[in-house]
Amino acid sequence: MDNRPIGIFDSGLGGLTCVREVMKIMPNENIIYFGDTGRVPYGTRSSATIVKYVRQDINFLRKFDIKFIVIACGTASSAALPHITTEYDTDIIGVVEPASKLAVNATKNGRIGVLGTSGTINSGKYSEKIGNLNPEIKVISNACPMFVPVVENGYSDSKIARMLAEEYLDVMLKNDVDTIILGCTHYPLLKKTIQDVVGDGVTLIDSGAAAAGEAKRIMEMHRLLSGSNEIGGAKYYVSDTVHGFEELGSLFLSKKIEGDVAKIDIEKY
């Protein structure tokens, strides 16, 4: 058993949807969360810049003697994870592989859609992972660059969100996908809108929740789960103002944020 905290990070607040699932399935774990709100979004950055940011994010989390790290960001998982896994002695996972596995198991007609940032879609990592798992599956990917700012600004349940969803999902409907990966951890806040557009016959895969489940599986295997009987706590760090974090972050967590929130200078790492 290991009572050290789990580290989770994202380019902004979206990774809190992964935190929510970790709290649900591993309630005794302590969590350190970092949201790189000063540099959000990662999806429009170059691969080299994303790798640099991810190294800094991980270096910051390692200050806390982290036992396990989840990159709760589709863009960072796609662009940076393959480059940095051998640089650290801490277990690190992203969202791409866990979500791909769930989608392959869920599809009945062999047609999987992937929604993500431009960085995630352009990397081709979801298509690559799914192809490795089952080369007969057809993958239809579409970048949704406006989804993150809509969510980050509190417009998840709005006419704007619905209009964007209809545009982004049109290609999915035309290709008769029966499973869609929400390839950015912001997108679960749009789940109701997306489901309304595609219908109940399409399965939506929450990439953050998938990563949380994979983290639990690996931690059980490596005997890293907490031995505490107490409910774990969480501390939150951001790279921009903490103003508004508790209010908007509570939407991602689906509950009031209770814990320390602090601003840090991520460039020092």
Main beta sheet: strand number and arrangement? 6 strands, parallel
Q: In terms of structural class, how would the helical and strand content be classed?
A: alpha/beta
Using the 3D structure, state the CATH architecture of the largest domain: 3-Layer(aba) Sandwich
Q: Strand content of the residues, in percent?
A: 15-25%
Helix content: 40-55%
For this structure, what is the CATH class of the largest domain?
Answer: Alpha Beta
Mean pLDDT rating = 94
* DSSP summary: helix tally: 12
The overall strand count is 10
Order of helices and strands: EHEHEHHEHEHHEHHEHEHEHE
Order of strands across the widest beta sheet? 4-3-1-2-9-10
Give me the CATH fold name of the largest domain: Rossmann fold
Q: How many independent structural domains?
A: 2
What is the CA-atom radius of gyration, in angstroms? Answer: 17 Å
Question: Can you walk me through this structure?
Answer:
By secondary structure, the protein is an alpha/beta fold. It folds into 2 domains: 6-94 and 209-268, Rossmann fold; 96-207, Rossmann fold, CATH 3.40.50. The chain contains 12 helices and 10 strands. The protein has helices at residues 16-25, 47-61, 74-79, 81-84, 96-106, 118-123, 125-133, 147-152, 159-174, 191-198, 207-221, 245-253; strands at residues 6-10, 31-35, 68-71, 91-93, 111-116, 138-143, 179-182, 203-206, 234-238, 261-263. It has a 6-stranded parallel beta sheet, with helices on both faces. A 4-stranded parallel beta sheet has the order 6-5-7-8, with helices on both faces. The longest helix is centred in the middle third of the chain and has 16 residues, at 159-174. The chain is globular and about 50 Å long. Pathway: Cell wall biogenesis; peptidoglycan biosynthesis. Its EC number is 5.1.1.3. Substrate binds at residues 10-11, 42-43, 185-186. This is Glutamate racemase. Provides the (R)-glutamate required for cell wall biosynthesis.
